[in-house]
């Protein structure tokens, strides 16, 4: 059965973010970013914490159950060094009757075989 990935890549979930959620290392920062968006959609807190750099990871994370993530657009993915990268994206959301978009430039770093999220700033 074709299950389109939550991140909107057009690939199937199991060959896209599902691989990362199952433990495969992210090949690049954009793939990690996509897998984190998909994890937000699935309320997979364990994955969100696991894919967060140890130095900036919060002790816990609580998601707003009323907030639904409705779309992801990647604007830019750029290496900023041999082991660092940024991804600028907009994530659309809906909460009850309200809708909005979160635009953020996130920083990532290489961690072992994969990548982890460091932090982000608006815009
Ligand atoms: Zn995906």
TrEMBL record:
Residues 28-120 form the YchJ-like middle NTF2-like domain. InterPro entries: NTF2-like_dom_sf (IPR032710), YchJ-like_M (IPR048469). Coiled coil: none annotated. This is YchJ family protein. It comes from Marinibaculum pumilum.
